[in-house]
Amino acid sequence: MAESAPLQGLSLIENGWFIEKNAQWPGQANALEVKEVLLHKKTKFQDLLVFASAKHGNVIVLDGVIQITERDEMSYQEMLAHLPMFSADKPTHVLIIGGGDGGVLREVVKHDTVEKVTWCEIDGDVVEAAKKYMPNVAVAVSNPKTELLVGDGVAFAESSKENSFDVIIVDSSDPVGPAEKLFSKEFYVNVHRILKPGGVVCSQGECLWLNEDLIDAMVTDYGACFASAEYASIQVPTYPSGQIGAFIARKAGTAGPASCRSPRREPPAGMPLRYYTAEMHAAAFALPAFLRKRLKAVEGSPEKRPRLSWQ
């Protein structure tokens, strides 16, 4: 039975519905019908809720915000993983920061070139919850190529050696609480340092309808030390406004164009994909006029990096 009374803490269930209300997106809310609450606890870092929904399968919620539903998770997981993986040249060593549900990891290990995945997730309770309640998402957690480190991704980036990774994927929650330090110029200076020449970073880039200033900062400030820095759009119906972005940037030092707008190779015929295609890769970089104008207007001086590919 669904909870009939509100849960205590940040996660709210009323009259059998989970209601996502948050100061980060004032004046709007999202709701999913709940069949059964599977888990609700305070971890060391955040409020963790897992419930079985009426139409979207199992759902993981952190600090009152939906992170993943079984129905639409493939759009986010596949795009956040394959945009950088197919933009990189035969990536062998990949770093994933965050992504406690294991979905991005599942997608990364589909690439035959990958020899090792270093996965740094701050909250081990999220990993355990995903293994129990979303096994099809967390299917690669025990993959022999994977090294799971439960710890702070910011500190890990600071301590890692220069030129260590071909691809870095930052699958973070919103820029409050445990993920706040992942949205800073200092973090991306370290990301740039530990990427190999020509390497690619791709991060959860927030919503273009709600976070225009942050997207501006990511592309123009955080991306200033990279050869290219761009924003791609992903459709996720259960996220605020039905949209989320990927901030993607390439370190200088590779042959070919710096932009990540076009994949460098096609997905193999046998790769199991439900959302990502080469066409979806290219289409993700088609932005609405207001955001395109904003990013073009504040691009900054030409010595910061090459001009964005639409200019």
TrEMBL record:
The keyword Transferase applies. The keyword Transferase applies. This is Spermidine synthase 2. SUPFAM superfamilies: S-adenosyl-L-methionine-dependent methyltransferases. PROSITE patterns: PABS_1, PABS_2. It holds the Pfam family Spermine_synth. InterPro entries: PABS, PABS_CS, SAM-dependent_MTases_sf, Spermi_synthase, Spermidine_synt_N, Spermidine_synt_N_sf. GO terms for cellular component: cytosol. Belongs to the spermidine/spermine synthase family. Keywords: Transferase. NCBIfam families: PRK00811.1, speE. GO terms for biological process: spermidine biosynthetic process. One of its GO terms (molecular function) is spermidine synthase activity.
